[in-house]
Structures are given as C-alpha cells and as structure tokens.
Write a structure and sequence with these properties.
By secondary structure, the protein is α/β, with parallel strands linked by helices. It is built from 7 helices and 10 strands. It has a single domain, classed as Vaccinia Virus protein VP39 (Rossmann fold), CATH 3.40.50.150. The structure holds S-adenosylmethionine.
C-alpha cells in the first residue's frame, strides 16, 4: 500500500530502505527516517522552530520505482510496503543509542492493565517494551496502514511471545478504535505522515479514557538525523496540532539527542 501524505503533512524522507534513490534538500544526508547523522545540540525546547510554512518542496521524493509510486497533488507518495527492508533501518541495533526506547516508554507513565496504542508502529520496534509495561492484564494495539508492516509485526510479536500485543491495520485517517477505549497513544516518527492532523488530533482525544494521553516523538528541526528538514513537524507545530484537537500539549524534558517529545491530554478530564 502506498501512503499518501498531504501538503499539510509533508512526507518524511522517502528514500527507499534499499538505499536512497534520490537526492534530498541541501544539507540533508539523504539517509531517511532513521539515518545516521551528526547530533546537534537541541539548544533548549524554545529553539525548536517550526518550518511548516516552508513546505511545498516535494521534488525528488517518493521515487522508489515501485508500482503505483507517484507524486500526489498534495504531497508525496510514500512506500512503506517492504517491511523486511524497512526493518533494517527501524530495527538497526544502533537505533537504541539515540532513540532511547526505555526512556521514551518511561515518559509514557504506563500502568499495568492499560491499553496502549502504537500508531504507525512500523515493524514493531517498541512492541516488547510496551508489552512489558502494560503487563499481562494490559493490551498493546500496534496500528499501521501498511499490511506488510502489520504482517511483519504479527510474526515478530509471536516470536517475541508478546501475547498482549496485537498488530492491526488502520486507515490513513483514523485508528478504527472505539472512543474512550485507550489509555496511551504513542506516535513515533509518524505524526508528520498524517494528513489533516488537527482532525486526527480530535479523533485521538476522543479515543482517550479519563487520564489518558497522547505522546508524539519526532525529529527536531535542528538535528541532521531523520527526514528532510522541510518535511518535519517540529514541536511547536505538533503542539498546535494537538491543541487544535482540544488537548493540552507540552514539550517534556528528556535526553534524546535528536528528537523532541510532546505529551497531550484532554484538559477537561
Ligand atoms: C518512520 S515509520 C515509524 C515506525 C515506528 N513508529 C518506529 O518508530 O519504528 C512511519 C510509519 O508510519 C506509518 N504511517 C504512514 N502514514 C500513516 C497514517 N496516516 N497513520 C498511521 N500510520 C501511518 C507508515 O506505514 C510507517 O510504518
């Protein structure tokens, strides 16, 4: 399946997992979502400016040479169908050093028995940690619009013995889950793929149980790692999206070298 990202949510780096097939914007290494790059000091959360206003630079992305791959009127066709290939990047053993998955999951403040959604879960990198956090009475729902990713996760979770983790496909514009059924939503390196994020934020808010929260983890606008800078959603924009969905959102303190974490909750509950 081809994921179409709209103009308001420009696609992230669309280099093939087999290797970049195209050049990126000047200064970008062309190594995609989880590529290796130098670490820039984030310089404090207030220094993370948002460059959303500069989108529209869509040239040379989405050219994977795969069937159906094409530029869309409002954005970029993005192909995440080859899960095994993407796994080489998403599950690169070196990722833990900068992704700090234990710290990320700690910030979710998961209690045993909770229901946690991993939205845009990809190959299931966070699965085992989320599964351990919710415990045997809890549930992890790993959602991805790509059938290949979901199949990959099902096999992976079975191999890892994660009996409380379930991988499901989701539409591009929603989770397909019932309102009031979820305690935590984690969205890693995926928020910038979502079109109409303000409407999506409203949907997420409706999903939450009392005390529930949504976490967005994505690349800062400064770091050399990650998707092309003009395709990123910085923390200010992520916060604005979530506020537009009538949640209260804020950047939290963390030690991730290349990313920010925004946490949002329903202020009225
Ligand atoms: C860069 S990967 C991140 C995977 C995973 N979260 C991780 O950190 O390893 C982005 C994922 O988002 C998924 N995705 C793209 N558009 C989406 C949408 N509208 N809703 C949910 N997931 C989406 C893609 O299929 C892909 O698996």
């Amino acid at each position: 399946m081809l994921v179409l990202s709209a103009l308001l949510a420009p696609a992230c780096a669309s280099s093939s997992p087999n290797g970049p097939s195209h050049a990126h914007a000047a200064g970008h290494r062309g190594d995609g979502e989880h590529g290796e790059g130098g670490h820039h000091d984030k310089g404090g959360h207030h220094g993370k400016h948002d460059h959303q206003g500069k989108h529209g630079h869509h040239g040379k992305h989405g050219h994977h040479g795969k069937p159906g791959d094409h530029k869309h009127e409002h954005g970029v066709a993005h192909d995440f169908s080859d899960a095994a290939e993407w796994s080489k990047r998403f599950d690169d053993p070196g990722r833990d050093a900068w992704q700090k998955p234990d710290e990320v999951v700690k910030h979710l403040a998961i209690q045993p028995g909770m229901t946690v959604v991993d939205l845009g879960a990809g190959t299931g990198y966070f699965g085992k940690r989320l599964s351990a956090a919710v415990g045997p009475k809890g549930k992890v729902i790993a959602l991805d619009p790509e059938a290949g990713m979901v199949a990959f996760m099902r096999e992976r979770f079975a191999k890892e013995g994660l009996t409380n983790a379930e991988a499901r496909t989701c539409p591009l514009d929603g989770t397909g889950l019932e309102p009031g059924s979820v305690d935590r939503v984690i969205i890693v390196d995926t928020w910038h793929h979502i079109s109409n994020r303000e409407a999506y934020a409203k949907h997420l808010k409706a999903l939450l149980r009392p005390g529930g929260s949504v976490m967005v983890v994505d690349f800062t606008l400064e770091t050399e790692k990650g998707p092309p800078k003009e395709h990123r959603v910085g923390p200010d924009k992520a916060i604005a999206d979530l506020w537009a969905g009538q949640m209260v959102a804020r950047v939290i303190d963390e030690t991730l070298p290349d990313q920010y974490i925004v946490v949002a909750s329903d202020a009225t509950r």
